[in-house]
Give the backbone structure.
Amino acid sequence: MLCADHVSLCLGGTAILHDVSLSARAGHLTAIAGPNGSGKTTLLRALTGEIAAQGTITMGGLPVHPRHAMALAPRRGVLPQAARLAFPFTVIEVVRIGHGAGRFAHRPDLPLRALDHVGLRHMASRTYQDLSGGEQQRVQFARVLAQIWEPAGPDGPNWLFLDEPVSSLDIGHQLGVMRLARDFAARGGGVVAVMHDLNLTSMFADQVVMMQSGRVVAEGTPETVITSETLSAVYGCDLAVSEPPPGNRPYILPQNARAG
Amino acid sequence: MMTLTQAKMIEAQPRDRRATARQAHLWLGLLLIAVCAISLESGASGVSLLGLVTGSAQDDTLARIILWEVRLPRIAMGALVGAALAVSGAVMQGLFRNPLADPGIVGVSAGAGLGAITAIVLGGLLPPALQSLIGIYTVPLAAFVGGWASVLLLYGVATRGGRTSVATMLLAGIALGALSGAVSGLMVYAADDQQLRDLTFWGLGSLAGATWAKLATAAPIIGLALVAATTLGRGLNGLALGEATALHLGIPVQRTKTLAILCVAGATGAAVAVSGGIGFVGIVVPHLLRLATGPDHGPLLINSALLGASLLLGADILSRLLIAPAELPIGIVTAVLGAPVFLWILLRRRGLVDL
């Protein structure tokens, strides 16, 4: 269980989060959605203990705060939004850095298996900086997987925190990464993901937290949160759920993709 | 034609640079021993250890003095300073997440130099009790403080929210170097005759003045900094992924940064205190090693120490032999070797560096 209780946060004198309370359950994929600048990423940074916030945050009973980062590392992995790398590490070396920080550092097969999961084993020896943005994002996901690996450990469920995990991926890999995240949750782990894509959110999330201007404005299952009324109010434009666009323009619904 | 499956099978076992990097410890160790031996045998006087041992030397006592009081301390100093500068470079580059960070280029050496000069000129103003307490360590300690203040200032200016702006770092380095140079000039202006003599000797930027006594002042500080630096491998690898990610990997980020800054200040400060400003070792050595064995800081830091020591001793041999019996300042040799490498990195990474 991940609990945030009355969390507020100011950055540079501006209040970013106002009295946010939420709880996310292990075994569920919890999506944080909302328009640009609504505080999604800041909330995720508070939930991972990257920045200290007012209020209390606990993960499986452990207090979440920057000074407890070492105790949290074996139990939760964090995928950042964009990751620039300072030196020419190869793909497998990046994954190994995550692997070495986790509980399974004694299993040398895991980094390659993590790359298998994101379909990048054949690029293991390539220089990370030479990869495309989407490939880099998948390498980072493999790094997080290699750090945590098991959805549950001896002291309870483990957690993945994903900041827009599919933002630079093509539709095939979007589905691939979301399936990996859902699978992690289905096997007992906790997943919290900041999501931009409302279709993917409604497809994969068990619970949706809708943010607006630093506040939680709706929380619940995708069916109760992703409604025409809520979306129109939050995103400031007239949105209708499940209406095909006018004219004969082609449109793609990821919901229709067959599992593969 | 190769099918995709075949291509994937070839990649089934990815190239592993870790073994290469570890083997490099051995090869670079052997290289260092070889360079030490060559350095011991070469010099303007024509004295050689071989000659001394086989008894073919004309003057045993003179040969002994030259080898034991001139060449050996010089070799020890060269190895120590080379290792210190190369490791300082590698640690700074890891800390600033940038391959262009080098104590000489971004003004840390100048800051350490200011510390050293201040100690030479104003050291007499310290309370006598303190003077007798730190004694011969006054100059290296002051250089350490100067270097430490410089790295701290530079890091504070150039790094915001865990990201270092390369442009800010290089420009702040120029400002820092200029300021340190100006204040150093002021110190020289205020110095008396004896202090000017000391300053001139210090400012030669050479290993020529190496003595066992001088070595004794620098060796403990450099030794400590080098040993501490070898513990930074995992932390700097984590920092390469960004400060936030390092935190999520369970790396004590603040402690790593503090230790890295102290290591750079200690190693650069002590090296500058005994040998003046010798540039470019800190940028060339880690860069070559990254090309050869990858950027993993664990082996990189150890290999940097070994190759840095060898490189500086090699440059010292050149500086002694090129215009023998006169001597070229070693800083010229390292700059001629190092400046093109710096430009090369800058040009090759033009797209990546947000200048």
User: Anything to note?
Assistant: Chain B touches chain A through 33 residues (CB under 8 Å).
